[in-house]
């Protein structure tokens, strides 16, 4: 049996751009993508804490170190600049592997950047 489990989570980032006339997707700072193992074109769920909206889209790489979270196309109607969102990705795996799997989760700072070590 295969089961779908949380793979990655970027917790509580602010939307920095919203472009209704873009083709569609979410643009994410490449540093944030790398930190949780999300790749370009990967399917993600975006949850908006300000209005309760949930959407499914795919990821485009944003400028590394920019803190960019851009809602593009129709997603720009679901999250405005300044809204706080959570980005989630999932993976399918065998049940026994899923029981042991630990998702990659980050908690960026107010500027959507990762804390320095």
Molecular structure report:
The protein contains 2 helices and 8 strands. The chain is globular and about 40 Å long. The protein has 117 residues and is mainly beta. It has a single domain, classed as Beta Barrel (Barwin-like endoglucanases), CATH 2.40.40. It starts with a strand and ends in an 11-residue tail after the last strand.
Summarize the structure.
The chain has 117 residues and is mainly beta. It has two helices and eight strands; from the N terminus they run E-E-E-H-E-E-E-E-H-E. The protein has a single domain (2-94), classed as Barwin-like endoglucanases (Beta Barrel), CATH 2.40.40.20.
Q: What radius of gyration results from the CA coordinates?
A: 14 Å
**Can you summarize the main beta sheet?**
8 strands, mixed
The CATH architecture comes to: Beta Barrel
Q: Count of DSSP E strands?
A: 8
In whole angstroms, the N-to-C terminal distance is 39 Å
Shape: globular
Structural class: mainly beta
Series of secondary-structure elements, N-terminal to C-terminal: EEEHEEEEHE
CATH level 3 topology? Barwin-like endoglucanases
Widest sheet, order of strands: 2-6-3-5-4-7-1-8
Count up the domains: 1
- Please bin the fraction of helical residues: 10-25%
Mean pLDDT equals 96
Strand content: over 45%
- The number of helices is 2
CATH class category: Mainly Beta
Low-confidence stretches: none
């Amino acid at each position: 049996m295969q089961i779908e489990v949380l793979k990655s989570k970027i917790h509580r980032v602010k939307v920095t751009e919203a472009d209704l006339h873009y083709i569609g997707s979410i643009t994410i700072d490449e540093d944030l993508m790398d930190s949780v193992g999300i790749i370009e074109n990967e399917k993600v769920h975006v949850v908006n804490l300000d209005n309760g909206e949930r959407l499914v889209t795919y990821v485009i790489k944003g400028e590394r170190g920019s803190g960019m979270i851009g809602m593009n196309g129709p997603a720009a109607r679901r999250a405005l600049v300044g809204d706080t969102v959570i980005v989630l990705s999932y993976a399918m795996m065998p049940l026994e592997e899923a029981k042991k799997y630990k998702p990659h989760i980050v908690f960026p700072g107010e500027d959507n950047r990762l804390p320095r070590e």
